[in-house]
Amino acid sequence: MQVGIDQIGFYTPNKYVDMVDLAHARNQDPNKFLIGIGQAKMSVADQTQDAVSMGINATLRYWNKIDQDKIGLLVFGTESSVDQSKSASLFVKTALKMKPQVRTFEVKEACFGLTAGLMIARDFVRVHPEQTAIVIGSDIARYGINTPGEVTQGAGSISMLVKAEPRIFSLNDGHSAYSEDINDFWRPNNRATALVEGKYSTQVYLDFFTKTFATYKEQKNWHTQDFSSIIYHLPFTKQGLKANRLAVENEDEETTKRLMDNFESSKQLGMNVGNIYTASLYMSLLSLLENAKLAPNSLIGLFSYGSGAMAEFFSGNTIDGYEKQLDIDGDQKLLSRRRKLSIEEYERIFTVGLDLPEDGIVLESDESAGNWYFAGTENNVRIYKQK
Ligand code: CAA
């Protein structure tokens, strides 16, 4: 029995900052951001979009296409959690009117959270093949105005339906994991923005990639040329490019070209949305599926990295006809509907978003009809509404 991804839903908020504008405002050469970092735009969440609302909106992208009664598990991976105790998934469950019998919880290990959820879902479906699982990754990357990490911010969510005999992507057995207790990137409970040892984090990422990729190939007795593509967690696209360059070192011309070309396809969404932490690797998967020409049953390697740090390399294969399950036009519209912010507007929205609105204040959203948003708190309970 194959188990894997049957549906992928994507959501990003309706505002963005252009990296050329940001570079000018920060007295930087735009090519540092466009080429040196590899980012063109970043989505910006205002106070009415948070991890929960974005996760609902991503799931809604496929919600009416699936058998909702079969869902037995709902896992939410995030490092932009809205509560220290209650799972973000419970708000999603209520918004989508899921049945009470669903097992549901939130997981955290930085950007690795959605991969953890996906692996739990895969194993759940293996044991309960008649049931399905939804896994959501949803985050707002916030480093702060005028920090080196500012150019690597972003906001968005990916939601996936995991089931037996999936129609998009089957997950292979086995994985190689590697973890170490380090301080490359973290966000203490009293902070709304991340702390980061930027240069160190980029080195650890590459080190963990080298280790997990080598171990995985050894475990499966596979070689680099067996992979049609390798895709990455993309905190910014240059980071993935550097890992991909390591992957193709000493490989033949054909393998190098294929892996470099497919990397280009996989980075298109990330380059225009920014870092969405837990969901970033899966936005790379969606971008690859939408932009590359992949032969049936193509072997795709996935590198997941969560600071702190935990990394995993695993793989899957495309299912024949996967294109029919995608909504490429819908994803393009989602990006093109975004309004470009001036740097002043972005800075104001960013600053307001660091705090909760005063209890009892009702927030209005400028999202399009049908989307969910955070409407403020009533007696310190978070309220979500549909536009
Ligand atoms: N034209 C072209 N390229 C230029 C340029 C120009 N005019 N000016 C500079 N560059 C290049 C530099 O040569 C450099 O390229 P290389 O990395 O290939 O050497 C690149 O632009 C970046 O320049 P700097 O190293 O000087 O950039 P910086 O000091 O401003 O910071 C950063 C870069 C450390 C990544 C910073 O943005 C940051 O801290 N980001 C957040 C942390 C992060 O994303 N870490 C990634 C690994 S951790 C992870 O993956 C988990 C997660 O999601 C956070």
From TrEMBL:
Top-rank taxon, per record: Bacteria
Name of the protein in its database record: Hydroxymethylglutaryl-CoA synthase
Keyword Acyltransferase in record: yes
Gene Ontology terms: biological process: acetyl-CoA metabolic process
Residues reported to bind (3S)-3-hydroxy-3-methylglutaryl-CoA: 29, 143, 242, 275
Signal peptide bounds: none
Higher taxonomy: Bacteria, Bacillati, Bacillota, Bacilli, Lactobacillales
UniProt cross-references to PANTHER family, sorted A to Z: 3-HYDROXY-3-METHYLGLUTARYL COENZYME A SYNTHASE, HYDROXYMETHYLGLUTARYL-COA SYNTHASE
Pfam families, A to Z: HMG_CoA_synt_C, HMG_CoA_synt_N
Residues the record marks as active site: 79, 111, 233
The enzyme's E.C. designation: 2.3.3.10
Hydroxymethylglutaryl-coenzyme A synthase C-terminal domain location: 263-348
A GO term, aspect molecular function: hydroxymethylglutaryl-CoA synthase activity
Domain Hydroxymethylglutaryl-coenzyme A synthase N-terminal positions: 2-163
Keywords: Acyltransferase, Transferase
Family statement: Belongs to the thiolase-like superfamily. HMG-CoA synthase family.
